[in-house]
Amino acid sequence: MSILSQCCGLTLLATIVYFYSFRRKIMIKTGQNYIELVFATVICTVFDMLSIFCINHENTLPSIFVEIICKTYIVSLVSVSIFGLRYLCADVYKSNKEYKQAMWRVYTTWCLMAAVIYALPIYVAYDEEGVALYTEGPSTIATYICVALVILMIVVTTEKNRRVVNINRRKVVYIWIAAWTVAAVIQFLRNELLIVSFGAALGVAIIYFALENPESNLDRNTGFFNENALGLYANQHFNTGKKFSLVFLEISPYRNVGKKLSLEADIQEEINRYIMSFEKGDIFIVSDSEYCMAFESKENANDALELIRERFNYGWGLKKNVILPTRYMYVPDSMEFDGWESLSQAIRFIGYSGTNVNEVNVVTPASLTDLVKEREIEEIIRDAIDNDRIEAFYQPIYSVREKRFVSAEALARIRREDGSIVPPYLFIPVAEKNGTIIKIGEIVFEKTCQLLSREMLNERFDIDYIEVNLSTVQCSYECLADSFVSIMNKNHVDPAWINLEITETGSLAEKNILLKNMNELMIYGVTFSLDDFGTGNSNLNYIMDMPVKIVKFDRELISAYFENDKARHIMTSIIKMLKDMEFEIVAEGVETKEQAEEMMKLGVSYIQGYYYSKPLTRGDYINFLETGSNMADA
To answer: Is the CATH code 3.30.70.270 the one for domain 218-363?
Structure first.
């Protein structure tokens, strides 16, 4: 008997093992089970060759030895089918508990089949000239039946779970079954053609090239794992309940400092080498400019994130003159999510939106919930802008010296479609973050100008001015002055009727923009006040640097005055200092008569707060003035 087909099969299997072993791979359950199927097929092929050798030399070998080798070979055929079923089960049963239960049933079946095959007799068949050809008998028949039963189990398991089985795996498993079945049928009809092992090896090779080739999970340009591999990695960990952390970094197109660098590929290679140096994690490339690093230890992920952020603060290239703006996402604990589908949706939804260079978006269910709420608020803001539901509310300001209401602060409010009001603490941070605060500010300013002009507040009620609050984003808006001057001109508003409240800005560049706008508006006739005094770190500097005439004490400072001796002494000293410098002082957030009287004793110029009035709609504010409330007696 020739072992040519077995040698071909063994060569094919050895080639698969070689290429599989020397390729970087994601060790997932299906991959582990596949390589076990490969080795089961190798063992089967080796025992096929051994059985042929024993049959050819049965006269010189102990009969019991020949029988054991021949029976071990046909048991190994059943083993190959069992490992094929095990390979499929890794895709069917996602949880460890279900998989282990399925494996217990599979191994029990395997042991029973092996016991039956070893127990039944086996014979050597000869040709007419007395030359040994193959084995036959009850043991061999039992093997065909057992393999057929396992194949039937594979088909039933596949069809029963076709919704959860990878469609490509289902097709390839059927091809593997077909290749093996055809070889078995041919050998059954032509017993001298011993090609069952080769059929099994051919089926295993088909699975390799179609599904289990590690090359399919690698990016050819970088050698990193690709996005498909990331999904396999994550699903494997979710299925086994094993925690992992992810670090994403998105590199923007680089800019050069000084001389232009022509070898972009060298920069890319330098980055790849650096990222590859993190041996404690698996590296995935999601796109040309986006990497993902997966760690099974949260501490390793934290360390890597800090090191990477630190490294990307410096330049790349031979002269370190290539700056790469980079943004980050961080998933600290994958198990906070239900599975890879929900986690990947959160990653796509949160993304890098809203992050500046070198900032990190942390992906957690809580941050996802916050972002969903933020997006809902964004939609409310856009809808309010489009449908004229941005309103200006006015909170009266009482003059201690004149004992009447001489001004008011204009405050932005958003009215929902059902008529309810969106609290400012909900929409202001979102509007500042996405920039719509500039449009909201312009709408509030225009409605304030319309109120001043159409209701003739100065003539009818002797209102000196209306204060309009500017957010930090508006303060750093280059076209603020031009926009506001245009609105005042359109509504024929005397700029002396406008006072703009500013807050301290976050950078020197923003401060310079604000000063430019202030100078242009002051030349036009607008005055300024410093809002929220007492909450920032640089308010005293602002008083010295900024051309303001009014200082507004924050409600927190007012509250602290009545609760803390130190705050009382500090505020008393500050008021004296401001009065000596001839600033007007507004006390905000005054809610009781006692607070109002105490502020008057301290010498503040104006009082604003719920003690006199909450913020009012335009109509209510006019009614407030018309009913004589502007003559309130303190």
So the answer is: yes
